[in-house]
């Protein structure tokens, strides 16, 4: 699992690398403003508290337990976005290979069935949120729609891949056509990252 600190991470590719699927303008807003705002807010909230020494994952779990929605939303959105950038690659797309392919075939029948379920989940999620591919305690893959900032980390499930379907993720490039954004995701999905996540512990 990638190491996520209290800092805004560098993107794993240039801002223009996923154009035209995700434009540089979208990254300037989505990464440069939205994600950066979550990081700035989170740092203000934990400054001069014991939480400064916590990992972002532990801050998320602490905030969930304490029902601190402001802290939870900013910490989880920072973690989710940091994870999401790695789910994309200019060299991605195509069908999966390796262990993730075997598990998809085992748990969903075949890639086409998995792709249809994931796309429908992402498209039909009402309002803002995330479509997650996660692995449960039985090591079975699950597709999970999660509202707002919610994340599999608080459900004791291992995140494998995600797609951000908050409107700010796609509106500049696709206006209100979320299904087109979801369809385009398959051309840049990073299966290497998915395979890495299967190998690592939370």
UniProtKB/TrEMBL annotation:
* Residue ranges annotated for the Manganese/iron superoxide dismutase N-terminal domain, each copy included: 7-89
Q: What is its EC number?
A: 1.15.1.1
PROSITE patterns per record:
SOD_MN
Catalytic activity annotation:
2 superoxide + 2 H(+) = H2O2 + O2
Q: Which SUPFAM superfamilies match?
A: Fe,Mn superoxide dismutase (SOD), C-terminal domain, Fe,Mn superoxide dismutase (SOD), N-terminal domain
| Gene3D superfamilies the record matches | Fe,Mn superoxide dismutase (SOD) domain, Iron/manganese superoxide dismutase, C-terminal domain
For molecular function, the Gene Ontology terms on record are:
superoxide dismutase activity
The keyword Glycosyltransferase belongs to this UniProt entry's keyword annotation: no
Pfam families of this UniProt entry? Sod_Fe_C, Sod_Fe_N
Keyword vocabulary terms for this entry: Metal-binding, Oxidoreductase
The segment(s) forming the Manganese/iron superoxide dismutase C-terminal domain are 96-196
Top-level enzyme category: oxidoreductase
Q: Does the UniProt entry include the keyword Metal-binding? A: yes
The family annotation for this protein states: Belongs to the iron/manganese superoxide dismutase family.
PANTHER family registered for this protein in UniProt: SUPEROXIDE DISMUTASE, SUPEROXIDE DISMUTASE [FE] 2, CHLOROPLASTIC
Its biological purpose is as follows: Destroys radicals which are normally produced within the cells and which are toxic to biological systems.
**Could you tell me what this protein is called?**
Superoxide dismutase
The species is: Mariniflexile ostreae
């Amino acid at each position: 699992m990638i190491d996520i600190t209290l800092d805004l991470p560098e993107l794993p590719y240039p801002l223009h690398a996923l154009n035209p699927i995700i434009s540089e303008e979208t990254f300037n807003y989505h990464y440069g403003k939205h994600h950066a705002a979550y990081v700035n807010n989170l740092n203000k909230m934990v400054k001069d508290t014991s939480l400064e020494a916590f990992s972002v994952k532990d801050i998320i779990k602490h905030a969930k337990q304490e029902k601190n929605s402001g802290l939870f939303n900013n910490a989880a959105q920072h973690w989710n976005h940091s994870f999401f950038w790695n789910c994309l690659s200019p060299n991605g797309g195509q069908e999966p290979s390796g262990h993730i392919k075997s598990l998809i075939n085992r748990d969903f029948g075949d890639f086409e069935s998995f792709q249809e379920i994931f796309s429908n989940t992402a498209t039909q999620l009402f309002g803002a949120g995330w479509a997650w591919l996660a692995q449960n305690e039985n090591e079975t893959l699950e597709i999970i729609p999660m509202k707002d900032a919610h994340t599999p980390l608080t459900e004791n499930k291992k995140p494998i891949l995600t797609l951000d379907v908050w409107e700010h993720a796609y509106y500049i490039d696709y206006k209100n056509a979320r299904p087109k954004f979801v369809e385009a995701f398959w051309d840049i999905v990073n299966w290497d990252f998915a395979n890495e996540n299967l190998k690592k512990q939370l």
